[in-house]
């Protein structure tokens, strides 16, 4: 009986499809109130994206449609995913027959990797109440997750420095905002007051301990006596290397916290900062929560009455996974509440994520690896546990471009969980682009790139590197062969590091070479343009205002970093066909680098820049004559239109023009005015 009904529906469905195919335009519809046994039209929509995907597969297998467009219109509503929505080569469109999954008109469509929870009630267990400050006991509610079918909690992730960014495990969101895992202090950090085994680490005079046993001030951890899964998250030795570590024991008499091995790779240092987390005893403010993973009980102090809001816990890892897919677009969708990444693409071509919101994710927003011509555009990304968009594509040895791009995206408040080295946008491979994005409010970098021949232009970046000092808003490092990237016509402002102790605007770290920093505006950025021992870099036609300093160049490979020359740098050089005809033509200065004092920062050119206020130059170990200096306007009135209003356009009679300075299209920098869905 069921088979007969199914066949009847299939016959009707295919007759409809072929009628549409004749018009070269096929439309399917999906709705939360739909039915996967329906026809998938406007009146009788499907219930799931998976069914729409399968209907497209059947249509393609039937043949008869070679050009036009196939559109899946997704009606308003919440779509909780119990497994990732997957697309493979079988789900590809073509250049003449693209496939689009899009929100119907301007309706709000939400793909959610979480589950709404309820059943909250006051705490009655005396043992639990004992762990909570008396002042707050009546504010905190509890709910049983196991009773609601949620049993996979995962653990707090250590995120070892240099290791992969793991899924964060279960998180709580309330009214579309990420809540805070109970911690102390509620904001900011406390500092290491002393070390149990000092003097066992010494890095160029910076001393610390290799053992994770350190002394704290005050008596706050006495409150943690009944806790069984306390963690600390800190910047233990260097400002740019954070790590979460599980607490092994606390000696409250001697005020010593001992973390469980393995210890942090660089060690521990007095004055470095940390906070405690995953502590029920510190659930002392609205928006904080704690999960007893053994019992499956979640405790929560809602920021508003629980019945007036919507509580969701993340369950699914990735929302959308695509492998080997081409010519498919997803438009106008909200992706949220996953433990991992919203959209993962592997070896895809000519794909597009546009006009969408990607938020409240344990991992990042979009990861693109391999393939070519994939774009993330007109999206807003925020509340991510790690970074925003990762674009890696192209063949370095063949210098074949990947052609991926991040265009006109607003990325902010990212790095909630993985704080360091998870940028708003990351570039790898060859020939990818970052254009017209607005990036701000993050603990570490905005852009990190590696590889060759990328373009980073017309972006506005501000208030990043908020928890780090030896860090760059735009960063790359340690490779002679990664050349050809152009950083052009960007506006970087108010980037001064943790506690305003200084960081970097464009950071070419550890002998990074062959990069062009052209036509950018830097305002109140410490060490705005930084060449860390590299060669053949161009700093031209930039405006530096109140930067301290505007430009830094050092010769680190000739001193303390010299050990990298014969090891990492040479190894990475020999991994590339740098003497081949292709590479000789593209990077002629690289061919004889090993015979040309490779540790010396030769070939750098600094010309036609404007420096107003602040400090112009910082040289460390560099003979000024080794750098080419031409026609820079330093500490002279540049003729800004209105510097007090941060209008750094030049008046027509500016003296910089007489030196050959070219106008910067400041009015074009940053987000475009609209976020079109198509």
How would you describe what is shown here?
- By secondary structure, this protein is mainly beta.
- It folds into five domains: 1-74, no CATH class; 76-113 and 316-464, Single-stranded right-handed beta-helix, Pectin lyase-like (Pectate Lyase C-like, 3 Solenoid); 115-182 and 283-312, no CATH class; 190-280; 465-678, no CATH class.
- It is 9% helix and 34% strand.
- It has six helices and 61 strands.
- The strands form eight sheets. The protein has a 14-stranded parallel β-sheet. A 13-stranded parallel β-sheet has the order 3-6-28-31-34-38-41-44-47-50-53-56-59, with no helix packed on it.
- β20 and β21 (256-259) form a beta hairpin.
- It starts with a helix and ends in a 20-residue tail after the last helix.
- The relative contact order is 0.08.
- Residues 1-23 and 161-166 have low confidence and may be disordered.
List the defining traits of the structure above:
single chain; 678 residues; mainly beta; Pectate Lyase C-like; 14-stranded parallel β-sheet; 13-stranded parallel β-sheet; 9% helix; 34% strand; disordered N terminus
Spatial ordering of strands, largest sheet: 1-2-5-27-30-33-37-40-43-46-49-52-55-58
Largest sheet: 14 strands, parallel
User: Percentage of helical residues?
Assistant: under 10%
Low-confidence stretches: 1-23, 161-166
Write a brief caption for the model:
By secondary structure, the chain is mainly β. It contains six helices and 61 strands. The N terminus is likely disordered.
């Amino acid at each position: 009986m069921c088979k007969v009904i199914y066949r009847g529906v299939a016959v009707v469905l295919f007759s409809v499809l072929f009628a549409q195919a004749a018009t070269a335009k096929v439309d399917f519809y999906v709705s939360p109130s739909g039915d996967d046994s329906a026809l998938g039209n406007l009146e009788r929509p499907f219930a799931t994206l998976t069914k729409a995907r399968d209907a497209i597969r059947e249509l393609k297998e039937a043949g008869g449609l070679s050009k036009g467009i196939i559109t899946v219109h997704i009606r308003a509503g919440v779509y909780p995913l119990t497994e990732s929505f997957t697309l493979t080569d079988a789900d590809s469109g073509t250049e003449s027959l693209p496939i689009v999954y899009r929100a119907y008109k301007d309706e709000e469509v939400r793909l959610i990797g979480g589950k709404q929870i309820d059943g909250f009630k006051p705490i009655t267990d005396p043992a639990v109440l004992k762990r909570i400050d008396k002042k707050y006991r009546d504010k905190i509610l509890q709910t049983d997750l196991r009773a609601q079918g949620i049993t996979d909690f995962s653990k707090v992730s250590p995120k070892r420095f240099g290791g992969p960014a793991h899924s964060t495990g279960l998180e709580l969101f309330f009214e579309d905002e990420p809540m805070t895992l109970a911690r102390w202090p509620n904001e900011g950090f406390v500092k290491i007051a002393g070390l149990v085994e000092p003097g066992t680490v010494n890095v160029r005079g910076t001393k610390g301990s290799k053992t994770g046993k350190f002394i704290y001030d005050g008596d706050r951890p006495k409150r943690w006596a009944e806790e069984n899964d306390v963690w600390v998250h800190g910047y233990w030795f260097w400002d740019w290397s954070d790590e979460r570590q599980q607490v092994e024991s606390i000696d409250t008499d001697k005020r010593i916290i001992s973390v469980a091995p393995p210890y942090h790779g660089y060690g521990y240092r007095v004055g470095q900062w940390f906070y405690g987390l995953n502590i029920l005893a510190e659930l002392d403010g609205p928006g904080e929560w704690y999960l007893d993973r053994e019992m499956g009980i979640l405790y929560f102090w809602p920021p508003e009455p629980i019945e007036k809001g919507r509580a969701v816990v993340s369950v699914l890892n990735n929302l959308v996974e695509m492998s080997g897919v081409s010519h498919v677009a997803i438009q106008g969708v909200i992706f949220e509440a996953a433990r991992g990444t919203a959209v993962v693409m592997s070896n895809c071509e000519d794909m597009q994520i546009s006009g969408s919101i990607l938020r409240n994710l344990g991992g990042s927003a979009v990861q693109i690896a391999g393939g070519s011509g994939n774009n993330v555009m007109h999206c807003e990304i925020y509340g991510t546990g790690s970074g925003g968009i990762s674009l890696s594509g192209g063949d370095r040895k063949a210098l074949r471009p990947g052609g991926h791009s991040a265009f006109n995206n607003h990325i902010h408040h990212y790095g909630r969980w993985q704080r360091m080295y998870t940028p708003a946008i990351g570039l790898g491979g060859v020939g990818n682009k970052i254009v017209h994005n607005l990036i701000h409010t993050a603990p570490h970098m905005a852009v990190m790139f590696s590889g060759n021949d990328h373009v980073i232009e017309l972006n506005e970046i501000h208030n990043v590197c908020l928890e780090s000092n030896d860090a760059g808003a735009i960063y790359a490092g340690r490779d002679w062969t990664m050349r050809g990237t152009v950083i052009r016509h960007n506006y970087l402002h108010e980037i001064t590091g943790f506690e305003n102790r200084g960081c970097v605007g464009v950071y070419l770290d550890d002998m990074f070479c062959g990069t062009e920093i052209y036509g950018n505006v830097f305002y109140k950025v410490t060490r705005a343009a930084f060449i860390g021992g590299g060669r053949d870099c161009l700093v031209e036609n930039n405006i530096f205002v109140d930067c301290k300093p505007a430009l830094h160049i050092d010769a680190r490979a000739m001193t303390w970093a010299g050990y990298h020359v014969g090891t990492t740098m040479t190894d990475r050089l020999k991994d590339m066909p740098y003497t081949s005809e292709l590479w000789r033509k593209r990077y002629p200065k690289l061919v004889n680098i090993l015979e040309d004092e490779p540790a010396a920062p030769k070939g750098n050119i600094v010309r036609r820049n404007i420096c107003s206020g602040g400090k112009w130059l910082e040289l460390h170990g560099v003979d000024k004559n080794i750098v080419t200096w031409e026609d820079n306007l330093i500490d002279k009135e540049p003729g800004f239109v209105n510097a007090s209003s941060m209008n750094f356009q030049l008046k027509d009679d500016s003296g910089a023009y007489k030196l050959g300075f070219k106008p910067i299209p400041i009015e074009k920098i940053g987000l475009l005015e609209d976020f079109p869905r198509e």
